Amino acid sequence: MADPLLLIVAAGAAYLGFALFALSQSRHWQQVAPSHVAQPPQKKALRLLGSLALALSLSCACLRDGPAFGPVLWLLLLSVAAPLLVFTLSWRPHWLRRLAQRLATSDPRHSESIKRGPMQRG
Amino acid sequence: MPAIQTQYLSRASASLAPVLGTVSRVLLAVVGAYFFTTASVMLAARGIADLGLMSRSDAVVLAAMLGFLLYLGLLLWAFAERRLGRVAIVLGGGSLLLHGAATLLQAPA
Amino acid sequence: MGWLHTWAGVVLGSVMFAMFWMGSLSVFDREIDRWMMPATRLAAAPADFSLDRSVLPIAQELAAASPQWGISLPTERTPVLRLNYVGADKQRARRDFDPTTGALIADQGTLGGTGFIYPFHYMLHIKWRQLGYWIVGVAAMAMLVLLVSGVIIHKKIFTDFFLFRPKKQLQRASLDLHNLTGVLGLPFHFVMVLSGLIIFMGIYFPTAPLATYADTPDAKKAFSGDAYGRYNRDKANQPGSLASLDGMVASAEQQWQGGRPFFVRVINPADANSVVEVRRSSASDIMVNLDQIYFDGTTGAVLSRFEAAPVMTVQRFISGLHLVQFKHWALRWIYFVLGLSGCVMIATGFIFWLEARRASHAKKGLKGVRIVEALTVGSVTGIIASTAMFFVANRLLPLDAQWLGYERPQLETGAFYLLWLASFAHAALRPRRAWREQTAAIAVLAVLAVLLDALTTHDHLSTVMRGQWAAVGMDGVLLLAAVIAAFAGRHMAQRKPVLRAVRSPSRNPELEHG
């Protein structure tokens, strides 16, 4: 039972990692959570969390498949997770809204990093 | 291919020079760089083997694997380099020289 | 670089798409084999399988006159015993057996995935002077150039990393998708193309060993013996009998510390100097190993043992990354999906080229767009429809089919090539409707293939029960392909690319005429 579970966690963490990286870009934060809904946290924090998620993904892949297959599985999972995240952003951005709200900060100091141009359409 | 020609012909009002330049660059890149690479692979394999770091077959395998990357680099350079003359000298002259050296090494001792 | 990227892509994109398409399918070549050869949809071989009891009697009967015979052992993906030998008519022959019963499996009359789709991927079935390998090699080198030059001209890789705007005009959306599949798939595609070239280094750099092996009479032969292993000894010309093959296999497994054999060859089986070669399976490693042990056939003593040298081991690891011979279903599916993402990258590159020029070519009366569009449609939807046709023909033709002197396997591939040619003609004659009509053809043919499989193999639902996942998976993928094709066809019908391209010219002229 551990094998499928580790695979799911590895894939999910890869997806989450890319989601955090995407949210660190103003353009994609706007897509997911327009600035009147939630203020973005610091970009550095998002990217750090994203890196941690990708590291978790690597650990799970290596735990499941060992040092030879693990990194290969991880790299290929990344190549699949990234486009899946992109399609989520394009077609179902609201799926990520709850994640963005969890991460959001009301601290106005960080809101200046958002460009207040016309909202990006899907 | 006809699309390339028609475009160039209409732009350069029937002047053949740019077409010839393009054709020679493509030929130099694809064929010239290939022969430059094969000669380099032969020489590198012999060189690595003579250094005694690994077995003869491994030296050939290493040189051949790196050969693909060398060919890729040469291809990109042949298209990025503005001066066609330089491409011709390096890839044309270079591959002749390297092949000469490789042929000398192939003579049984 | 923009110029190079554009024209190398347009000129060689068709070959590249064929390579990527057939390569993606080759990831499941053995599963396709099971689907196309229903009699080989067998249960796994029994654990106490014995070469001496199951194989030897068959080989001694069929291959009595053969100077050597080889047996591929049953595996999870290929659950048959495959015997290769030279028949009484001096022709190479191949017979499949059920490893459980030892019964001969009737010739399924097809090249299948391993015989047609997989070789198509690396040599296009053009055997003359290895021309097929060279065309593939040129296209592969061009693909490496395209991947690198694509990164160079893209410029905003990290800003646009997650960017895809499907609702924008077709030209913009296809460029986004081209960049997306190109950038995110880059590590996979680069490694796959480079490793594909490295597998065939002997073909692409035939002169490589000449200077190093100058002191040997045949440099290439000496090199390949050193690198890939080879052993043989002369016949004694005295009769001899074989010792236990099972004993030799057990000895090999012990020397490999648990490594399993996948292939056993007996050279000069009836001679006193017979040799038994045992090769090690790569199912548990990424690397496709070259481990081989040669036994004295009459005594079972080890004559010679081979393992790849260190750099060659690296070469076999790189080859293994490409060849996917390991047992890892998650990775196998990801390979399949990422291979198809390469197909999307090539197709969207074509579409972007077409959309960027459609309006201006129409205005200037240039034919480039029409020619390239016919080429694109035939290379993309055409080859997919033809592959579905290959599967349909496989299920339609009776086992003993023959026509105009062509055997059944040639009839199947003939159906593939005829429909492929027709798809180019169709695209040239009906440029506006070709995309839509060919996606419709894909959907219909894929569904037809599933229906025919159900009708002709009778055991359809029970395949699920018996764990015949190869056939079940193949049907599932065909149905999914039909849905995607129908969806894509509808999507294309709704778009009016010509009008849109005229109304909203691109904001990126550099890429348009690069």
Structure write-up:
The complex is a heterotrimer of chains A (122), B (109) and C (514). With 122 residues, chain A is an all-alpha fold. Chain A has helices spanning 2-23, 26-32, 43-91, 97-103. The longest helix of chain A is centred in the middle third of the chain and has 49 residues, at 43-91. Chain A is elongated, with a radius of gyration of 16 Å. In chain A, 40% of the residues are buried. Chain B is mainly α. Chain B has one domain (29-106). Helix content of chain B is 85%, strand content 0%. Chain B has four helices and no strands. Chain B has helices at residues 2-11, 17-51, 56-80, 84-106. Chain B is elongated and about 55 Å long. Residues 1-6 of chain B have low confidence and may be disordered. In chain C, helix 1 (2-26) packs antiparallel against helix 4 (112-123), helix 2 packs across helix 4 and helix 6 runs antiparallel to helix 12. In chain C, the strands form two sheets. Chain C has an eight-stranded antiparallel beta sheet, covered by helices on one side. Chain C has a two-stranded antiparallel ribbon with strand order 9-10. With 514 residues, chain C is of the alpha+beta class. The longest helix of chain C is centred in the C-terminal third of the chain and has 36 residues, at 329-364. The model of chain C is unreliable at 497-514 (pLDDT under 50). Chains in contact: A-C, B-C. Chain A binds chain C through residues 7, 18, 21-22, 25, 27-28, 65, 68-69, 72-73, 75-77, 79-80, 82-83, 85-87, 89-91, 121-122, and chain C through 159, 161-167, 180-181, 184-185, 187-188, 285-286, 321, 326, 328, 330-331, 334-335, 337-338, 341.
